[in-house]
Write a structure and sequence with these properties.
By secondary structure, the chain is of the alpha/beta class.
């Protein structure tokens, strides 16, 4: 049934939402207000400045109170640095949004409960988005600002699309008037260049269908006014496909708040939907080449983009995307980051087919294959991560530059460790963040031999990367070591058997992946005293790498409390890190300690936590 829904496209309303055949006719007063005549557009509007700026081939080769410290890079000196907050100017909003944009939080929360008006944080964020620079905000957590972030980027993307469409409609009207009034023998005037090679202008990547549902609800809420209800095609079908099924039973076990916030609603991760907007009407399930906004998961696009050599593949619809949103990028790391990179590699490529485009209306920078330099990319995540940083540095080349929030963590998650435990941090030499071979050799030669003795039984090894987990599992199998393993692909029975064997001492080691902790907390028991999901029987804990999410460090360390209290004196914790783990290290031990550790001549550092003592 889900497959049938996925392939459905609305062709019934094609002519109604066709930009090429629509124009502003007489008597459409509201649309006249929405679409300024050519030549009368506000030249101070950043949208107009951004799309009308012509860059040369030479150009191609070249602290805020709520958001914190901003790192700004601008390839073209004439554009200057980002303004200070007191000088931040909100973007000019389209007429359709002028009366609603301050209620953006209510638009994203149809059930009520959202704060009235835009928050100071959203005002700063909208000001940054309005500069058309790339934006990276790595503090959008599900229990924090994620909903405010979603409302802001939906408003910005919708504002961009409405302005672009209004410009096309206004030019359509001008050309229509010129054709009807022109006399025989007069030379035709040059047509305005106001379009890309394909229609989709905004792409919003989200991890689950529930997130897509919230995005669409926000878009609709922003366009609806108190006096006029907007026309939304296929709304019922969309709610059935993207809403939570009525017969879904609530989980039997209690789960952490961040887990419930991340996995609420429909968590299917394979979807894509096109949205076309014209005046005050919105069409869901629009064919991609008739869409203005595409909302999709990386997996949903990956299956459509295909790979080189496949007969059925399509990526032309990404050729003229001008606004790209990557929301909840940290969740994509837990899903499959390769899907995100695959999508990025296919952004703003020259189309293989013309798709009935009127080349006389296509902007010159699209024809020059410079669309990637005009694309604004906005990435939101709950954490900073080198792979996300790499995405921005390798796949984003906005001529207006980039703004990234870089706030240094003052305290680390080690302060939330409740058990009395010595933490031994061992630094190994490394040439890059992706140097997994050096980490592996250091572990099997320097660390693992210390735990092979039977006295060091009940050792759990926490492995952040699935590829590292497979490598360790294969090595331990080849060495005929006594171990059990749990990963995100393990069945319920396999997890139960591994936990029992480890707790009983039948297996000396337990390999435990970070993705298992992320996805499958539902299959492990709750330790009531610290309200955490736990693996029982741990005496020794080894972090093969620092966790992606800093609070996972304290959660996993607190699992030791499930063992017998008499064993507490012999508990150990060993953590591997390199100089390329600087930010993750700072989120665990704090920025000051991390700096001291990274610049120290010592390779081993000891901290002790306890119920009455802080990490020391």
């Amino acid at each position: 049934m889900e497959g049938a829904e996925e392939e459905f496209t609305d062709k019934e309303h094609e002519s109604k939402f066709c930009l090429e055949s629509n124009f502003i006719g007489e008597g459409e007063e509201e649309d006249k207000q929405d679409s300024q005549p050519p030549g009368e557009e506000d030249t101070k509007d950043m949208f107009v400045q951004h799309v009308d700026t012509e860059i040369s081939e030479e150009d191609v080769e070249k602290i805020w109170p709520k958001m914190g410290t901003l790192l700004c890079s601008t390839p073209l000196e004439r554009l200057g640095p980002v303004s200070q907050p007191k000088d931040a100017i909100l973007p000019a909003f389209h007429k359709v949004l002028e009366g609603n944009w301050r209620s953006l939080n209510q638009a994203s929360d149809p059930e009520g409960g959202a704060e009235e008006g835009a928050s100071p944080f959203q005002m700063e964020l909208l000001g940054l988005m309005g500069t058309y620079r790339d934006v990276y905000y790595p503090e959008s957590s599900p229990l924090g600002t994620s909903q405010q972030v979603r409302s802001a980027y939906c408003l910005h993307a919708l504002n961009h699309v409405l302005k672009a469409n209004s410009r096309v409609l206004a030019h359509n009207s001008l050309l229509h008037r010129q054709q009807t009034e022109s006399k025989a023998g007069t030379e035709p005037q040059d047509e305005p260049r106001d379009q890309g090679l394909t229609r989709p202008k905004a792409l919003i990547l989200v991890p689950f269908r529930d997130a897509a549902l919230r995005v669409v609800q926000t878009l609709i809420g922003l366009m609806e006014s108190k006096n006029k209800m907007m026309d939304v095609s296929n709304k019922k079908r969309f709610k059935e496909a993207y809403g939570e099924e009525a017969d879904v039973k609530p989980p039997k076990v209690q789960k952490p708040e961040d887990y419930r916030a991340t996995f609420s609603g429909n968590v299917d991760d394979h979807f894509r939907i096109g949205i076309s907007i014209l005046r005050r009407s919105l069409r869901l399930y629009a064919p991609f080449y008739s869409s203005d906004i595409i909302v999709a998961s990386p997996l949903g696009l990956r299956t459509l983009l295909g790979t080189e050599g496949e007969s059925k593949r399509d990526f032309d619809f990404l050729s003229s995307v001008e606004v790209l949103v990557v929301d909840q990028a940290d969740v994509f790391l837990m899903q499959n980051w390769e899907h995100v990179l695959h999508v990025m590699k296919h952004m703003n490529l020259q189309p293989l087919e013309s798709h009935n485009v009127d080349f006389s209306r296509v902007r010159l920078w699209n024809l020059n294959n410079w669309a990637k330099h005009y694309r604004q990319t906005m990435v939101f995540s709950a954490i900073q991560d080198p792979q996300i940083n790499n995405l921005l540095s390798k796949h984003c080349s906005n001529y207006r530059g980039q703004v990234a929030v870089k706030n240094i963590p003052k305290t680390g998650s080690i302060c939330q460790v409740l058990v009395q435990l010595p933490h031994v941090f061992q630094m190994f030499p490394s040439d890059s963040f992706m140097d997994q071979d050096t980490r592996f050799q250091f572990f099997i030669e320097k660390v693992l031999p210390q735990y092979k003795d039977s006295v060091m039984s009940h050792t759990m090894i926490y492995v952040p990367s699935y590829f590292d987990y497979v490598r360790l599992r294969n090595h331990m199998k080849k060495a005929d070591m006594s171990f059990a393993s749990t990963c995100e692909y393990s069945s319920r029975s396999e997890v139960s058997r591994a936990r029992h064997q480890f707790q009983a001492g039948d297996k000396q080691f337990l390999l435990f992946t970070e993705r298992f902790h992320f996805y499958k907390r539902r299959v492990v028991k709750v330790l009531f005293m610290v309200n955490l999901f736990t693996i029982r029987g741990i005496h020794n804990l080894v972090f093969y790498g620092l966790p992606t999410y800093p609070h996972y460090y304290s959660e996993v360390c607190n699992m030791l409390a499930a063992s017998s209290p008499t064993q507490g004196a012999s508990w150990t914790c060993t953590v591997l890190f390199s100089r390329y783990d600087a930010h993750r290290l700072a989120t665990v031990v704090g920025a000051k300690r991390a700096g001291q550790m990274l610049h120290s001549n010592k390779g081993v550092h000891l901290f002790v936590t306890g119920e009455d003592d802080k990490a020391s």
